[in-house]
Amino acid sequence: MNGFWIAGIAINVIALGVVLRWAVRAWKQADAPRRPHADTRQGVDPDS
């Protein structure tokens, strides 16, 4: 029973980490069009 609880907690922590990483990535992508470096589709690369 103890190992079952440990496994369940570990799965929940991993799942929470994956969801948080996905949410941060989605938020950064949604925020990207307002930033200058998002204009690479126009052939302008400010980093070069």
Estimate the global geometry from the Cα principal axes: rod-shaped
Low-confidence stretches: none
Total strand segments: 0
Structural class: mainly alpha
Helix segment tally: 1
Q: Measure the end-to-end span.
A: 58 Å
Short summary:
The protein is an all-alpha fold and 48 residues long. It has one helix at residues 2-31.
Structure notes:
With 48 residues, the protein is mainly α. Helix content is 62%, strand content 0%.
Which key features would you list for this structure?
single chain; 48 residues; mainly alpha; 1 helix; 0% strand
Give the topology:
Layout: H1 2-31
